[in-house]
Task: inverse folding
């Protein structure tokens, strides 16, 4: 009888927990509805009568780092439909909390906020699949582009600064440096990366502390939080709305004209939605450097041979769509510690005149939740699938790989990474379709280190990393003896996870170390460059009523970390469009 009573009590407690969980989830959903009444599930669009018979002034494809501030800005004066293939970030703990950063990236489920892909180079990467885009899955560091970059792209400096400030007032915070980050900052100065520029958003040579979109409680603030700055009466945001292709009017003798899009809702049903008949209405692609060129190709804009290969009706031949893709190669060394290390993402940076940026993260080591994490940047997990030739990557081999990670002692991974990123890589790659399914990743090649100058800068960067790791500040903090270069590199070869076969001379040749341990910090860009795919005002060449506002138009990644400039770009271009269309009546 006592056992029966215990079982009943256990079941009662389980029921209470489930009810509490249900109540908590319902509470969060109600909060989202009250704060963001314009956000709807895609399937409710026609059922609940949200569609506009007159069409929309702007249809924005991609509710990401640029798309959200762009939608908020344009909705001040015009009707806007923002289509996002992912869900909302507000109720997802893997998105919202700094401590779950690595778990969010490791989640490979179909509904994850992060969609993994591997480039043909063998580097594992990620794309966002959530409202807020990259700002919902990145390391949170916020720093502006250099003045050189702003001048190069031809933007109005005054409006740029106003647009940065608009973002900063709403979602950017000053970080409280962890002990690891203080030690890292002191070490940067110790090895000569000076002067110390303190806390600043500006891109300045030397060592600085930048902003972050994580607040003091470790909660992330994405660009989705910029949406309430718009006019809710003019703004409709559909989540789980996956755009399949653009719709063009291709009447004979006229330039192709974008008139709408086809999107799929979360139930699999497809819908068409159209622009208004106003001449200046536009479809705007803000889907990022992977999805935007992919969308153009699937919609019939791209190299003729590529379109014919997949039986896609050609709207416009443009050989440059998907070309000039680049990703900033990242290499890192793992720094062990004999004392507990607090979790921290990027808070400070060393900006060198040699075209190398130095950053650091800490405390994201082996844990029960990170067992399946294959991102070498922060997982710090030894044993890697990349040591197994592709033909031998059997299900059994993969299970052995997972088991080897599970069996690793937690103590082996106290510490952090020091990272070096090559700025403005000369090596360029390309993107192409592997099928006509928008849900699948296209084939992407970045050609890391194909240009010798990129490799030369990586070697210089790795030398700097080892000096930083051996500085008295780090050895005092970690309570570890100075490591030999060979030992540091040996640990780091195993800790950087990619699918590139390793060589026996990884710890003897810094060039080989760079090639074999290259990973990413998710700063890929290009594919739709200015003067090749778009004009200087980012309108797609050869068609009308179609524009691109995202990092696919960049020939280089702005600043040490691009998110600040992509956020600003959404606000800036929104203001420019309003001013071009309304003049003084824009009220901006």
Result:
């Amino acid at each position: 009888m006592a056992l029966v009573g215990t079982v009943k009590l256990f079941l009662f407690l389980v029921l209470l927990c489930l009810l509490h969980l249900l109540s908590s989830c319902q509470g969060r959903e109600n909060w989202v509805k009250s704060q963001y009444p314009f956000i709807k599930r895609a399937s409710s669009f026609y059922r609940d009568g949200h569609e506009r018979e007159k069409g929309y002034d702007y249809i924005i494809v991609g509710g990401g780092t640029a798309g959200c501030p762009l939608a908020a800005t344009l909705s001040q004066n015009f009707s806007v439909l923002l289509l996002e293939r992912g869900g909302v970030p507000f109720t997802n703990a893997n998105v919202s909390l700094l401590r779950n950063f690595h778990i969010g990236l490791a989640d490979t489920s179909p509904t994850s906020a992060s969609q993994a892909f591997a480039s043909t180079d063998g580097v594992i990467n990620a794309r966002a699949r959530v409202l807020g885009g990259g700002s919902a899955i990145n390391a949170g560091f916020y720093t502006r582009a250099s003045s050189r970059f702003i001048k190069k792209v031809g933007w109005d400096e005054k409006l740029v600064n106003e647009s940065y400030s608009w973002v900063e007032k709403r979602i950017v915070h000053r970080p409280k440096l962890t002990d690891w980050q203080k030690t890292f900052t002191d070490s940067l100065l110790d090895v000569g990366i000076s002067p110390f520029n303190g806390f600043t958003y500006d891109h300045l040579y030397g060592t600085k502390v930048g902003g972050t979109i994580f607040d003091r409680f470790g909660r992330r603030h994405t660009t989705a939080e910029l949406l309430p700055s718009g006019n809710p009466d003019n703004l409709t945001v559909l989540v789980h709305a996956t755009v399949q292709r653009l719709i063009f009017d291709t009447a004979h003798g006229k330039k192709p004209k974008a008139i709408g899009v086809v999107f799929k809702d979360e139930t699999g049903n497809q819908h068409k939605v159209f622009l208004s008949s106003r001449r200046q209405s536009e479809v705007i692609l803000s889907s990022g450097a992977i999805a935007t060129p992919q969308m153009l190709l699937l919609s019939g804009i791209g190299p003729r041979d590529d379109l014919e290969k997949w039986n896609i009706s050609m709207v416009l031949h443009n050989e440059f769509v998907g070309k000039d893709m680049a990703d900033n190669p990242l290499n890192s060394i793992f720094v062990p510690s004999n004392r507990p290390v607090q979790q921290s993402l990027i808070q400070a940076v060393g900006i060198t005149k040699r075209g190398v940026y130095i950053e650091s993260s800490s405390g994201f080591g082996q844990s029960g939740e990170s067992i399946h994490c294959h991102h070498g940047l922060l997982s710090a997990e030894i044993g890697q699938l990349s040591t197994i030739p592709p033909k031998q990557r059997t299900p059994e081999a993969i299970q052995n790989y997972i088991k080897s990670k599970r069996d690793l002692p937690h103590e082996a991974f106290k510490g952090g990474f020091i990272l070096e990123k090559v700025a403005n890589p000369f090596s360029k790659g390309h993107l192409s379709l592997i099928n006509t399914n928008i849900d699948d990743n296209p084939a992407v090649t970045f050609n890391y280190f194909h240009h010798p100058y990129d490799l030369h800068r990586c070697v210089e960067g790795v030398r700097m990393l080892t000096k930083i790791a051996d500085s008295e500040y780090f050895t005092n903090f970690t309570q570890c003896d100075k490591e030999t270069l060979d030992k540091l590199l040996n640990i780091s070869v195993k800790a950087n996870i990619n699918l590139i076969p390793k060589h026996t001379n990884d710890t003897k040749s810094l060039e080989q170390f760079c090639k074999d341990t290259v990973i990413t910090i998710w700063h890929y860009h290009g594919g739709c460059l200015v003067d090749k795919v778009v004009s200087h005002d980012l309108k797609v060449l050869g068609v009308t009523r179609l524009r691109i506002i995202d990092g696919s138009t960049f020939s280089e990644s702005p600043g040490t970390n691009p998110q600040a400039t992509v956020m600003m770009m959404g606000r800036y271009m929104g203001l420019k469009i309003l001013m071009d269309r309304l003049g003084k009546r824009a009220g901006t």
Observations:
- Residues 427 and 451 are 5 Å apart (CA to CA).
- The first strand starts at residue 39 and ends at 41.
